Amino acid sequence: MKTKPYDLLVIGAGSAGFNAAKLAHSLGKRVALVDGAQKLGGLCILRGCMPSKTLLYMAEVLHLAQKGKTFGLKIPRTAADMKAIHVRKKKIIADFAGYRDQQLASDKWDLFRSNAHFVDAHTVELDNGKQLKAEHVLIATGSRISTPPLPGLAETPFWTSDDVLDLDFIPKSVIVLGGGIVACELAQFLNRIGSRVTLVQRSPNILRDHSPEASVVVQQAFRDEGIELFTDTQIEKISGDKNGVSVRFTTGGKTVVRRAAHLFNALGREPDTACLDLAAAGVKTSDKGRVITNRFQQTSIPHIYAAGDVSGPYDIVHLAIAQGELATRHAFGLKELKPIDDGLVLNVVFTDPQLATIGLHEKQLHAKGIAYLSANYPFNDHGKSILMEANYGYVKVLAEPKRGRILGAEIVGKDAGELIHCFSGPLAMRATVFDLLKAPWYHPTLAEIITYPLEEIADQIEGKA
User: Please, what is the angle between helix 49-66 and helix 82-104, to 10°?
Assistant: First the structure.
């Protein structure tokens, strides 16, 4: 007797896959969830958002304590106890992971602790040879560490973000390769706990997906804290021996060599699709390996969907969840669906100062030929940030020039990741700068700094009337 096909088969139980499966069950569908990871929970809980932000916050507390004299405080000694930090982090992550395990072990779906690969467009095969069939399939296998073909990298022992997040000692010195979000957040963490850190970035600025102005602010903060930062580099050779690692690179027309006890490869991640045999299902990928999807997360095979890091274009948890849920709704014919709005994309980098953006960036507005007004205001001229010694950065607001509808915002500074949410509701509701200025803004708060660029844009519009 043949087993009835599942309504939805989800490959990957991370944020996108889990939430897609949960929604499908609520719609009364028969669901299979397949994940071969040793521990369930996905990148965010186990090796990404939660462990990294736990460590970053502990390093921030240490950094503030070390600045005690600035605030008139006598704090005789401050130091990181990495074994205690490691224990606290493991406990916090175990709590999150344990709760997710309970959710996944429910009777809402059939959970298969196995890897899977496609046999055809409706069938996958598990490690034990068992085959599962489904009317619809969601690929949500996430991403993995990438190792670019740099001279000597593959032959040299290096850490990945997984290793840095699992440290229980303070490394004497570390060379960080890369200038993306993971590289920058963890380079600052290592520096603050007491490692000597050198960061080598190939592009002219770190955090290259953000504006050069924002990147420059974070770069200055890094250098002020003692991180040795090299940008616009070309790596010539990486090597290692029993005494550590060596990186030779060119920058500014000069050849530079740096040595350290450890090497941290933070050069990015790539979609984790290698073992899926997508070709057997006819699923197409881009030249960067991402699964190609349309605006409803359908792949080149209409009943196969993809969501999260495996399809992009942004590796962000709340978007992965939204994509997984959108795919499920579309697969089962729910009406009046709207694709994910690029004009509402929210992004946060948890360096100190933090960097946060929402909506359209200036580069995107230029590319789309959209007219806009821009205004910004610096943290070093704002009362609350001055008394907090939080002087790096600025708030920038982008708005439509006729009515003042907010198009986007960029914040670099203290708690930017929290402040950027002042724009989330207004952007979703297509509010104007005038709408936000009707709201009360308490003094003295960090949030009230947002009112200054709002007022400047309002003045520009009213001046044209």
Answer: 150
**Burial of residue 289 (number of CB atoms within 10 Å: 0-12, 13-18, 19+):** middle
For residue 114, what is the DSSP state? Answer: S
Which residue has 């020039």 as its token pair? 401
Using one digit for the tens of pLDDT, what is the confidence trace for 106-138?
Answer: 889 999 999 999 999 999 999 999 999 999 999
Contact partners, residue 90, CB within 8 Å, separation at least 6: none
Pairing relation of β-strands 228-230 and 196-200?
parallel
Residue 36: phi, psi to the nearest 5? -100, 10
Average pLDDT estimate for 289-311: 96
CATH superfamily label, 342-464 = FAD/NAD-linked reductase, C-terminal dimerisation domain (3.30.390.30)
Assign 319 to helix, strand or coil. Answer: helix
Of 430, 443, 445, whose CA–CA distance to 343 is shortest? 430
Query: What pTM did the predictor assign?
Result: 0.94
pLDDT at 115: 95
Per-residue model confidence (pLDDT) at position 465: 52
